[in-house]
């Protein structure tokens, strides 16, 4: 054979080898994609046998469409005989808490629902817990913070230092008030206060109705205070102390078979526009030992979020915020 023919053949072999490797990788990724797409029973709630559904409500509360859809599926699923809401939240937007509260109440009309509080069920987190028919908390859980808050910054001093003069032309005095660029007029503060007090009265009404308090009892507890689980039990904000075993025992007392499995209904994996969906990426990260990186990043992002609207949230001011 001529030298050129040998070189051409070697080049052809290298090309064939390269495309074989590419084809194998595509096939492997396709298998992973299919596996994560079609075998999500433990993530999307596709259980076909009687069980107790467990739903985690963690972190800052928003009007979470995925969570609301999951709760609706639980309501309509005949295989779900009871529900445990595992709550660990400082609260969040009042609208988010309202939406989840209503979804939980719809479930409770059909099947028993119990809340099991972890570290924290404050503000909108407690609002959601009160939607259940039984609240179980740890002795050292933090419970309460019944109230509403509206916060906004004032950048007037910063803009003055930068030499920026912000001006606006408005159709009426209260349009776009309060703004971030100057002192809030008394009329705007009064408007915001009316909104807060209206939402606060609504929140207190929920607690009064769900916990069987009279309005005076609610008023004493709804001053924004937080309580330990033991204190919350004494003042009637929770029903029992303990963990998930106590919550399950209550469900058994409601007539559920004590042999029923508890199955966690997770958030549905996101379907991305790439070959590999989010669940597959998570699976790959797990195989290479990097799965633990995703949660801290998500938590840091959540702490930085700016929440719009009225808030029902409990937050301890950190040292760096005092500086």
TrEMBL record:
One of its GO terms (molecular function) is serine-type peptidase activity. Residues 108-253 form the Peptidase S49 domain. The chain crosses the membrane at residues 18-38. It holds the Pfam family Peptidase_S49. InterPro entries: ClpP/crotonase-like_dom_sf, Pept_S49_SppA, Peptidase_S49, S49_SppA_C. GO terms for biological process: proteolysis. SUPFAM superfamilies: ClpP/crotonase (SSF52096). The keyword Plastid does not apply. Keywords: Hydrolase, Membrane, Protease, Serine protease, Transmembrane, Transmembrane helix. NCBIfam families: SppA_dom (TIGR00706). PANTHER family: PEPTIDASE S49, PROTEINASE IV. Belongs to the peptidase S49 family. This is Clp protease. The lineage of its organism: Bacteria, Pseudomonadati, Pseudomonadota, Alphaproteobacteria, Hyphomicrobiales.
